[in-house]
Amino acid sequence: MITQDLFLKALNNNKAVRPQDMELLTTWFALPGRAVSAEQVVAVTGAKRASLIVNNLGKRVAAFLEVDAGTGASVVALDEKNEAGEAVWVMREELSQALLTHGSVAAEAVQEEVAPVVKAEPVKAEVKAAPVVSESEVVVEVVDSPLAKALVEFDVQFIRKAYPNTPAGQRLLKPAMVNALVTTRPVNARAYQRKIPAELRKSVNTQEVKMFLNKVLGILKAH
After folding, report:
1. Which position among 20, 29, 84, 156 has the lowest Cβ density within 10 Å, counted as fewest Cβ atoms?
2. How confident is residue 129, by pLDDT bands cut at 50, 70 and 90?
3. Origin, by domain of life (predicted)?
């Protein structure tokens, strides 16, 4: 099996591990148990076939290191099932350690599952400053909006599955953010920076923003 040092060598080569591969790996690393489902791979990459993405990644790494690729996916992961009986790919420990050594997963990614909930306090004050004074009222106000429903559905189906442990106050599509997005309708990153208050933008999880903001803006543009 490929060692941590060999994986680290592959991570330092853009042909073996491309930028889009690194996006998948950093998201994968942050998932509970380092286990990613086909649905989560599709959510991050936008691909139609998750197995093809994982297999090709393994083959590229193996080809660069000149080792036997086997089934491709087996190079980077183990095929297992989670507690719900869902098929998942579990990242090999050698690869996860190489990601840590490489620095592509910072301390925030490692600590994401144990991030203190106390950070939610400032968000409560922020919500009070918004047009709607409480999160429950925000939900009541926006549920009748087709755009808000689309955002909430995307959050449930994709973002929460990729980042199940993000505190409620740090979610990209928390009620206060949904309310702000529906009100201002930014359709690109520049408009998002200009229209959404800085305090609200800074309160959300950076990994969720990195992985899903463009897709969220795409939903806004489509509506």
Report:
1. 84
2. very low
3. Bacteria
Q: What is the pLDDT of residues 66-115, one digit of tens each?
A: 988 778 899 999 999 877 788 999 999 999 899 888 887 654 444 444 34
More confident: 84 or 134:
84
| Burial status of residue 31 (CB atoms within 10 A of its CB: 0-12, 13-18, 19 or more) | buried
Q: Answer yes or no: is pLDDT of 18 > 50.
A: yes
Distance CA(101)–CA(97), nearest Å, equals 6
Quick one: CA dihedral 45, 48, 53, 54, positive or negative? positive
Each as own residue / partner, the long-range contacts of residues 124-133 (CB below 8 Å, 24 or more positions apart, any chain) are 124/169, 126/176, 126/199, 126/200, 126/203, 127/175, 127/176, 130/176, 130/179, 130/180, 131/179, 131/183, 132/179
Q: In what order do the strands lie in the sheet with 77-81?
A: 35-37, 87-91, 77-81
Q: How far is CA 162 from CA 5, 67, 205, in A?
A: 28, 31, 12
Q: How do the domains of the chain map onto residue ranges?
A: 4-110, 115-222
